[in-house]
């Protein structure tokens, strides 16, 4: 195993989706850089992996580089996120950029991605798509964000947390009333559900039960106007 950085994808829900290569990598690295050690510890404990976990978030990435980059040069080190493929709306970009600059070995152990899974489940055209990341919290920024999506010529993807899903759908009804959307929740988990149709149709379905408001959401937006459900 070469010294350097191993970017390892982890399951987005169902633990059975982890690859044998991911498990083997995590078992053989020197330590693991992760978002939330408490969350990642559940994963590594399940597979009998006993490694030091180093917390990484948006505010300490420079510190992690300063304190650990020399160790990454001399040892194999893994980078994981809380779920799915690392660096997608998650910290880690600066570490990878620094490794590239320092000519440190980098490789990826691919696996689950909620973006790809949601696209597959959407029933919408996915030959061309644009990922917009998490919907902003600030109302003005959120409106600008949705207006950008409304003018996009490709299928659009965004992440939405459970406490914002109703607000987002209400704005979709106003800003993109004639776009077909697909809203995926809890992908690969026991409560996986996909809502498809116009924003008003999806809004009515999701708001009909509190159980539909739990979890994280991925929204796929059709690139063309459509008045049919």
How does this model look, in words?
The protein has 229 residues and is of the alpha/beta class. It has helices spanning 20-28, 37-46, 61-74, 93-101, 114-122, 139-150, 165-175, 199-207; strands at residues 4-8, 31-34, 52-55, 76-79, 106-109, 129-134, 155-160, 179-185, 193-197, 217-225. A five-stranded parallel sheet has the order 3-2-4-1-5, with helices on both faces. A five-stranded mixed sheet has the order 6-7-10-8-9, with helices on both faces. Helix 3 crosses helix 4 and helix 7 (165-175) runs antiparallel to helix 8.
Query: Which structural class fits the helix and strand makeup?
Result: alpha/beta
Poorly predicted ranges: none
Relative strand content:
15-25%
Helix tally?
8
Largest sheet: 5 strands, parallel
Overall morphology: elongated
Give a count of the beta strands, DSSP E runs of length 2 or more. 10
Helix content: 25-40%
- The SSE string, one letter per element, is EHEHEHEHEHEHEHEEHE
Strand order of the largest sheet: 3-2-4-1-5
Calculate the mean pLDDT score and round it. Answer: 94
Supply Rg. 19 Å
First-residue to last-residue Cα separation = 52 Å
Quick structural overview:
This protein is α/β, with parallel strands linked by helices and 229 residues long. Helix content is 36%, strand content 24%. The strands form 2 sheets. It has a 5-stranded parallel sheet, with helices on both faces. It has a 5-stranded mixed sheet with strand order 6-7-10-8-9, sandwiched between helices.
């Amino acid at each position: 195993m070469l010294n350097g950085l191993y970017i390892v994808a982890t399951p987005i829900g169902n633990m059975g989706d982890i690859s044998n290569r991911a498990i083997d990598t995590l078992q053989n690295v020197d330590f693991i850089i992760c978002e939330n050690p408490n969350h990642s510890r559940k994963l590594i404990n399940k597979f009998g992996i006993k490694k030091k976990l180093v917390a990484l978030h948006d505010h300490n990435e420079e510190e992690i580089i300063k304190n650990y980059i020399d160790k990454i040069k001399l040892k194999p080190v893994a980078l994981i996120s809380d779920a799915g493929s690392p660096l997608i709306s998650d910290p880690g970009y600066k570490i990878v950029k620094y490794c590239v600059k320092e000519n440190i070995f980098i490789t990826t152990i691919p696996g689950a991605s909620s973006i790809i899974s949601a696209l597959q489940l959407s029933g919408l055209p996915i030959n061309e798509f644009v990922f917009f990341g998490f919907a902003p919290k600030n109302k003005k920024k959120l409106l600008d964000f949705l207006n950008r999506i409304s003018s996009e010529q490709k299928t659009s993807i965004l992440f939405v947390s459970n406490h914002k899903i109703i607000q987002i759908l209400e704005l979709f009804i106003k800003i993109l009333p004639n776009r077909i959307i697909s809203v995926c929740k809890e992908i690969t988990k026991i409560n996986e559900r996909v809502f498809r149709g116009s924003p008003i149709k999806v809004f009515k379905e999701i708001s009909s039960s509190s159980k539909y408001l739990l979890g994280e959401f991925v929204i796929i937006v059709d690139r063309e106007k459509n008045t049919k459900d």
